[in-house]
Design brief:
Largest sheet of chain A: 6 strands, mixed
Helix content of chain B: under 10%
Largest interface: A-B, 22 and 26 residues
Strand content of chain A: over 45%
Number of strands of chain B: 11
Shape of chain B: globular
Structural class of chain B: mainly beta
Oligomer: heterodimer
Radius of gyration of chain A: 14 Å
Distance between the termini of chain A: 41 Å
Chain lengths: 114, 114
């Protein structure tokens, strides 16, 4: 069975600084997708970034980028120029190529200090 | 605007009562999902539906039931058999069961058992 592990329950970053959230996963599949979701205090899950396993290039979305290490099964999220609005729970998620549901890690609570 | 609507946002239930959480989407998505979120647990899959008139148990289906009679609707019933129903419930949908598409989420429903 696939598993997703987020080893940092809480992280803190100074406004305008950079922070990296860690995620590792375990799978025997070769075709899969990885996601980072943000859950602000409003509780609605918002997609931050997506990575296809077959792509070697790391995904980037504005201030958000990932470091995808397929052999190590690692998928970290880097947030640059952190803003107060980035404060939220961040969930790493895995989706197998032949399945629809996401498997989530337990989340990392990110605080941003002004 | 297209999206997923969950209702009610807050629900209180006495022990022994069944309650139904509504989930409606106007995204024309085939697949729909119900997740349960508890503090420190991440999101866990309750039920999913790949297509209308079909649904499957997820990882924690005991004490829950669903129906999928219409493409846009996927209600979740929390029965009296669910031993610890107090939680935050999230409904989601995706274009199809497989592929790179992400899951879109509703705003969630908070159920409290008195």
């Amino acid at each position: 069975a696939q598993t997703v592990t987020q080893s940092q329950p809480e992280m803190s970053v100074q406004e305008a600084e950079t922070v990296t959230l860690s995620c590792t996963y375990d799978t025997s599949e070769s075709d899969y997708y990885l996601f980072w979701y943000k859950q602000p205090p409003s509780r609605q899950m918002i997609l931050v970034i997506r990575q296809e396993a077959y792509k070697q290039q790391n995904a980037t979305e504005n201030r958000f980028s990932v470091n995808f290490q397929k052999a190590a099964k690692s998928f970290s999220l880097k947030i640059s120029d952190s803003q107060l609005g980035d404060a939220a729970m961040y969930f790493c998620a895995y989706r197998g190529g032949s399945q629809g549901n996401l498997i989530f890690g337990k989340g990392t609570k990110l605080s941003v200090k002004p | 605007d297209g999206g997923i609507t969950q209702s009610p946002k807050y629900l209180f239930r006495k022990e022994g009562q069944n309650v139904t959480l509504s989930c409606e989407q106007n995204l024309n998505h085939d697949a729909m999902y119900w997740y349960r979120q508890d503090p420190g647990q991440g999101l866990r899959l309750i039920y999913y539906s790949q297509i209308v008139n079909d649904f499957q148990k997820g990882d924690i289906a005991e004490g829950y039931s669903v129906s999928r009679e219409k493409k846009e609707s996927f209600p979740l019933t929390v029965t009296s058999a669910q031993k610890n129903p107090t939680a935050f419930y999230l409904c989601a949908s995706s274009i199809g069961w497989t592929g790179r598409g992400e899951l879109f989420f509703g705003e969630g429903s908070r159920l409290t058992v008195l």
